[in-house]
Amino acid sequence: MKILSLRFKNLNSLKGEWKIDFTQAPFNDNGLFAITGSTGAGKTTLLDAICLAIYHKTPRLGLLTPSNNEVMTRGEAECLSEVEFDVKGKAYRAFWSMRRSHGKSDGNLQAAVVELAEVENNKIIASQAKKKLEVVEHVTGLDFDRFTKSMMLSQGQFAAFLNAKESERAELLEELTGTEIYGLISERVHQYWSESKQKMVALESKAQGVQLLSAEYCSELKAELDSLAPLQSDAKLSKQQLDMSIRWKNDKASLEKELQSAEVALEAAQKSQLESQNDLDKLSFSEPAERLQPLYSKCIELHQSHSQQQLEITGLTRETTELEEAFQSLNQKLDEAQQALVNAKKEQHDLEDLITQTVLPLDNQMEQLANKIQTESKSVAQSEAKLNDMQEELKRIELLAVSQSNELRNTELFLKQNETLAQVAPNLEKWKVQTSLIQNQWQESQHLIQKLKQAESELSEHARKKSQLESEKLQLTPAYQQLNDEETKATAAFQALCQNGTVESLDSELERLNQQLILTLQLQHSQERWSELNNEKRNLDQERDKQKSDLAVLLTQRDSMRSQYKSQNQLVQSLHQLVSQEEHLAVYRAQLSPDTPCPLCGGLEHPILENGIEALPETVSKKREAERQLEEIKQSGEALSVQVSTLERHQKENQEKADSFQVELGKIASEWYQKVPNLEVPISIEDTNSALNAVKGLEQRITFTKTHLSQNKSAFKELEHTQKRKNELSEKLQQLDGRLQLLDKDLQMSESMTKELLARSQDLTKETQTAENEFKYQVESLGLSFPSQNTQQWFEGLEKQISEYQQSTQRLEELKQSIAVTQNHSDTLAKQKAELSNELNVQLQQVKNTEHALTEVKSKRFEAFKDKVVTNERNQIREKVTTLDNLHKSVDGQLKLSQEKLANALGKKSTLITNLDVTEKSLKEAESSWLTALETSPFENTEAYQTALLSEDEKGRLKALQQSLSHAITQSQTLLESCRKKLKEMNEHVNAPEWDKDSLEALAFKLEEVQQALDLRTKREGEINQELASDQQRRNDQAALFEEIESYRVVYDDIQYLHSMIGSQKGDKFRKFAQGLTLDNLIHLANKQLSRLYGRYQLQRKQGEGLELSVLDLWQGDSERDTKTLSGGESFLVSLALALALSDLVSHKTSIDSLFLDEGFGTLDAQTLDIALDALDSLNASGKMIGVISHIEAMKERIPVQLKVSKKSGLGISELASEYRV
């Protein structure tokens, strides 16, 4: 990163706008330049401007806000800063500015305006403060703290790192390099280790809490389960036989009950049939009458139709007479309505002629006259109001004229009384200047008197100090001689101790022995791990051999079980087929009976009945026993398969462990043979005592070396302390000589200054008195009294009087003009008032004429139409015509409807007469057919026929009765035969005698006992199976748990090893390690700078003391010194090297090509200053642009390119050279 240019405006004492281009001459010709100027001139303000433009803050004031801006020049309303800088060949422009509201110097501060843009194309990258800072940090790799530590080394910051305590130095290293992440990593590793440890403990505790059944108890449970199986089979068979017996007994009892019910039902059905015989006879007798029913029904229907037609003809005759009378009445009403409608329409026509020709023209005329009266009355009112306003305005103007006349007289009187003020006004500003000069001269005179007193006091003080310094020098001389002798003795003692080895050689030997010890300890740890792995591998090999032999036995047993299972399964299948065939044949054998054909062959001879039917229980028992044995073989085989799988899995796990052990052993051996050649005494990996003996030997040698090294260091520190005291005393004597010389010069200067101040004070007093007398004469010549004191108040009074006089003069002219305007306005208003009065009289006469014409028109209208309203009259006659028209239409409609009804009635009557003739003919034919049929029927007459007929309900009831009686008898007979047949078959069953021995209650009791025993054994079987399954599940879960523990142990071992290296609760372990590396890097960079600055010293870390620093004096045999023993000049050089190293360290992301040093070089002596300037020259030669702020004359001579900041006398502002002004 390189600063290209700087532009700023109104910052601190640098008022105005300035621009410095570092890419132009003279800066591009020589990269080293000095920023010079007196104290307080504003040199550091240039660095503040760079920080403001890029980061909106300064090292001295922090972040600038509208409530905190002390950088803006006093009395100004705006300040800004703009910097162009280059990063990796690309130029950027950073801008910052702040204004006050309304552009006034006392306005409120507004929010800052910021911007970051690319110089090449003016592309704005960011225009918000937060985003701009983020982009700047991303582009440059520097935040504000790193920027001020790497590019801009501020005042008082050089020795901050060198003199810091260890804890402060650690914080500073962490802040500068961003190594706080290492502490966070250390804390996170510790946290992860704690969590992993808790999880490991929980898994191990869980494994310890699992309880399994013993092998003996499992065997007992299985034996008990095996003994229950045959008992269960026998119980199930007994239960099946008892179920069959009970079912046979229940079925027989049910059949006997059904047989009795069927006999009772048959007897009841036959009895009901006898009781209902009369009703059944009625049904059979009604059948001939049913066949005559159509002829009889037709005669009855024709009789009824003939009577109905005669009644309808009578009614229609009466209705036609009534309709004819109504038609005549409606015809008369229609004629009357027609005449009334014609009369109403004529009346409407006459009314409309009157309204149109007479009434409406009069109404329009009346409306026009009324509107005219309203308009004229409004004009009269407006004229009257206007006339009143004019009268009020005239009164107001008259009062104003009187007031203006009075004010004019008073103003003229005031001007006449104060005519002298007109002569004072031109001299007032001149008098102010004279008064200010007199006051300034008086103040300067007092200031000179004060300086004169101060100079006399300094003169006396310099004389006293010179006497004191001469006395102090006489006292220090003997002490210096004594320290010289002590130095000689300490040097001899240190050289005697160095015969056993110098500090450097002992340090090197100690470091070498420590490295040997660390390497030996690492090898000892590797050897222990190697032995441990070897032992574990041997144990695994033994276990694998045992598992291999066990697996061979299990595989043989499993193959044997598979063969047994195959043979037994074939036996079970054969028995199952045999039992199935026997069961089918048993069904047919059960159906055999003497003298009945066989259902299979049809034969009548059945020898099997003579020999007795063989039962199946023996074959079934053999089948069940074979199935039980098959199940036992299956369970044994499955158990062997589980054992084989478990053993194979364990064998595989042990093989994987052995392989991992072998890999780790190879790795340990490889590392061992790589490290052993670096040892002084080689050790064998098989010999466990060799590493232990080597460690003890190295520890003894380290203790011996440390003792000699401590003695040498103590002697060296004593010598160093003596030399330091001697050097300090020598330096103090030199300083005393220098101070005495300076005091002599100061005495001479003080005497000269005292004389000069006395002469200037006397001259200034005379000049002040002369000026005061001249001013007094000018004032009194104009009739004014000269102010002896409070000059400011006297001038304010004069200014006030002059201002009143000038205002009165101006007011006099304004009053004269106002009076003329007022008089002119009054005359105009009087004329307008007379004109408006005449116009008002004319308007009043017009209103009277219009009102008279309106009265005449109203009289004519009353004579023609009274007070009637045209709209109402029109509506009344229109409603009358509408009503009569509706009445006419209604009567006409009623007449047409009556005529239509009459025609319909006459037509219907004619049709009925025709239909009556047809009905009479049909009736005669039907009566003839009925009489003929009745003569051939079993009935004597019509009454006998009607008696034989049954109603539909009665006929339906009798038919239902007949069908139900017949169905009941048939059903009862069928059920009775079925029950007798089934009961006979049950009594003939082969087991019927045996099943009929015991009662039903006894069989139920036996069944209950068998069922209870069967349930108890089933429950016990379930309990045993559940217990064995749970035990097996726990065994499976435990195996998975052990696998999880072993798997997690690998993870835990890794995190435990990582924790032992870098983990700690507060993050100190890894943080200190990273800080140590950072400090080593910083020391390396600082030593490179020291080699260029001053080749005498080198920095190093104190052994075993954390982050403490010490200095090696290469000119004193590489002797080690504490940094606190350095002199002021030496400390400055070391601090400068550290500051430059910090700059290089912080700028690891970005190349730093610009460097600004704001440090007082005034504490350096001439020799150290030359060294510092040589170092700056060498830095400049490396390509860096370096700006140094200083006011030391030697630096001004050595650095030709200078940027001068000059104070302006007495104004509190400074400026740069004119070529930098914008």
Compact summary:
The chain is of the alpha+beta class and 1222 residues long.
What features would you highlight for this structure?
single chain; 1222 residues; alpha+beta; Rossmann fold; Helix Hairpins; six-stranded antiparallel beta sheet; six-stranded mixed beta sheet; flat
Characterise this structure:
The chain is α+β, with helices and mostly antiparallel strands and 1222 residues long. Among the domains are: 1-151 and 1153-1222, 3-Layer(aba) Sandwich (Rossmann fold); 160-221 and 1000-1146, no CATH class; 503-603 and 613-688, Helix Hairpins (Orthogonal Bundle), CATH 1.10.287. The protein has 23 helices and 17 strands. It has helices at residues 43-55, 129-140, 144-150, 166-177, 180-208, 215-275, 277-417, 421-424, 428-497, 503-590, 607-611, 617-675, 688-781, 791-865, 870-935, 942-948, 952-987, 992-995, 1000-1062, 1068-1093, 1128-1146, 1166-1181, 1193-1198, and strands at 2-11, 14-21, 32-37, 57-58, 62-63, 78-87, 90-99, 113-118, 124-126, 152-153, 1097-1101, 1109-1113, 1119-1122, 1154-1158, 1185-1189, 1202-1207, 1214-1215. Strands 2-1-6-7-8-9 form a 6-stranded antiparallel β-sheet. Strands 10-14-15-3-16-17 form a 6-stranded mixed β-sheet. Helix 6 crosses helix 17 (952-987). The longest helix is centred in the first third of the chain and has 141 residues, at 277-417. It starts with a strand and ends in a 7-residue tail after the last strand. The mean pLDDT is 78.
